[in-house]
């Protein structure tokens, strides 16, 4: 590896990016990294995926997709054409002109940002960094991470951002399960440390996605992503609160939203549910809340939204308890409950932070016996927070199974569920997604939760 100053290295990098000759490394091949690697390879760049998990490169080499948004056939074609490969060997970084970081950014047990994945990755890159490379962070994080955390680690190898290598930030806007958009059709916010980096980041992504949205600094790009997710968290909390209030008044919140959204300006529909899930909305707002403490500033909207959204499973359990008592004189603790949908949102297999896990925990703590059905989650993977249900299997959805339970609790409204069968055979249904009304299956034994 050559680390001596090389004044022409950045110009050669720019040429390679613009002429689509650059080799691109994508680090972290999960929900964000794999679709991105495929989009980059499709754009014509030689693409190398890097992951610490040895199974990911094996799947990719075999052309087997493990992410819903990526078709195995597409993966196979790109691998066969020699445009995409994957490895756990991080020395490959040296061969890359562009390196994109898509590793997780979770919270610690104390709900503070856990940047350890980003830091480890930056240290690994620093080992192989050479003049003439572009490094872009995509992981969601608070404003300042690229400059304050990533840049010093990369520069610890003696090279300087802006002089020897270029550094940028471009947030991912992946929406798992959304059939209307894919990586390449979602406008991409791009930024760089300094003019040269900004231009090259925009030029690179401009070849991968249909539209780039350049912003003046990495801090703005980081703040854009956090703002988008806080906006969702706060608005979902608002409709969740409205659901509780309107329900007490005998007003159906879904009918309210359906009518309100006909207003052609100034209103955007958000829908209530059993709580928040996924790797983004329940987590990212706390990245900003943590950073705000440095400035002695409270983040009241974020805290309030978090409070309301995390209490939703408790509300849903109370609704179920009341409905069981009212319709069958049955105590929650004596009941058998069939939960529909373990994933945090419809049509995906992702159970990270899923409110369904919390619902099972709350119900079982009260003595109820809970089974679940989810066509996307045949068995519950082991998770640290919900170890007691790890390994449990999805039960089949048939008339006998439905009838054998005292209540069916719909937590996730996957499309591939026979709701008519449930409506026909369930004794009681608590629907947190309004799916039965949407399908015209309203009946006396269906309660909105
Ligand atoms: N999932 C989404 O819908 C979504 C949307 C927008 C943004 N994001 C953000 O994108 C980032 C990645 O999220 P994700 O959902 O793709 O996570 P993920 O858990 O699906 O994938 C992360 C991948 O990184 C790998 N990894 C972990 N440590 C590594 C290391 N040191 N080196 C190389 N690989 C490593 C893991 O093995 C895994 O394959 C996060 O910051 C997240 O907030 C996610």
Molecular structure report:
The chain has 449 residues and is an alpha/beta fold. The chain has 15 helices and 13 strands. Helix 8 packs parallel to helix 11 and helix 11 (300-328) crosses helix 12 (355-365). The longest helix has 31 residues, at 218-248. Nicotinamide-adenine-dinucleotide is lined by residues 27-33, 50-53, 56, 102-105, 117, 120-121, 139-140, 172, 174, 176, 279-280.
Provide the descriptors you would attach to this structure in a database record.
single chain; 449 residues; alpha/beta; eight-stranded mixed beta sheet; five-stranded parallel beta sheet; 13 strands; 40% helix; binds nicotinamide-adenine-dinucleotide
Give the SSE layout.
Blueprint: H1 9-18, E1 23-27, H2 33-42, E2 46-50, H3 55-61, H4 72-80, E3 84-87, E4 98-101, H5 116-128, E5 134-137, H6 145-155, E6 166-169, E7 188-192, H7 195-208, E8 212-214, H8 218-248, H9 253-260, H10 284-293, H11 300-328, E9 336-340, H12 355-365, E10 369-373, H13 399-403, E11 407-410, H14 419-425, E12 429-431, H15 435-438, E13 446-448
The chain binds nicotinamide-adenine-dinucleotide (NAD).
The site of nicotinamide-adenine-dinucleotide has 26 residues, from α5.
């Amino acid at each position: 590896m050559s680390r001596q100053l090389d004044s022409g290295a950045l110009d050669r990098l720019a040429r390679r990016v613009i002429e689509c000759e650059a080799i691109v490394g994508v680090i972290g091949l999960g929900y964000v990294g794999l679709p991105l690697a495929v989009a980059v390879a499709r754009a014509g760049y030689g693409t190398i995926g890097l992951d610490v998990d040895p199974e990911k490169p094996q799947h990719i080499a075999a052309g087997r997709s493990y992410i819903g948004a990526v078709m195995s056939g597409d993966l196979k074609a790109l691998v066969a054409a020699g445009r995409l490969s994957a490895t756990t060997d991080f020395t490959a970084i040296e061969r890359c002109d562009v390196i994109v970081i898509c590793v997780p950014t979770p919270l610690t047990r104390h709900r503070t940002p856990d940047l350890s994945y980003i830091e480890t990755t930056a240290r690994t890159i620093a080992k192989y960094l050479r003049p003439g490379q572009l490094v872009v962070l995509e992981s969601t994080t608070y404003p300042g991470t690229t400059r304050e955390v990533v840049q010093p680690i990369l520069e610890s190898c003696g090279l300087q951002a802006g002089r020897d290598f270029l550094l940028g930030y471009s947030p991912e806007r992946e929406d798992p399960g959304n059939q209307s958009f894919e990586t390449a059709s979602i406008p991409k916010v791009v930024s760089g440390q300094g003019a040269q980096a900004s231009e090259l980041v925009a030029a690179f992504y401009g070849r991968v996605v249909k539209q780039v949205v350049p912003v003046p600094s990495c801090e703005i790009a980081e703040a854009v992503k956090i703002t988008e997710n806080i906006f969702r968290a706060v608005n979902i909390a608002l409709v969740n609160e409205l659901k509780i209030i309107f329900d007490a008044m005998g007003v159906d919140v879904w009918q309210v939203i359906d009518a309100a959204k006909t207003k052609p300006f100034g209103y955007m529909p958000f829908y209530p549910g059993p709580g928040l899930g996924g790797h983004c909305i329940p987590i990212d707002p706390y990245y900003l809340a943590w950073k705000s403490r440095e400035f002695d500033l409270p983040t009241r909207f974020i805290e309030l939204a978090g409070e309301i959204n995390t209490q939703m499973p408790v509300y849903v359990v109370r609704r179920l308890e009341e409905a069981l008592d009212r319709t069958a004189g049955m105590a929650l603790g004596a009941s058998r409950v069939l939960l529909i949908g373990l994933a945090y949102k419809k049509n995906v297999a992702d159970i990270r932070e899923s409110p369904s896990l919390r619902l099972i925990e709350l119900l079982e703590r009260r003595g109820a016996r809970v089974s679940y059905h989810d066509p996307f989650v045949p068995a519950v993977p082991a998770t640290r927070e919900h170890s007691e249900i790890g390994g449990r299997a999805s039960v089949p959805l048939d008339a006998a199974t439905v009838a054998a339970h005292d209540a069916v609790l719909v937590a996730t409204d996957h499309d591939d569920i026979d709701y008519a069968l449930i409506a026909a055979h369930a004794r009681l249904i608590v629907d947190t997604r309004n799916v039965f009304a949407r399908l015209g299956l309203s009946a006396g034994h269906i309660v909105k939760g």
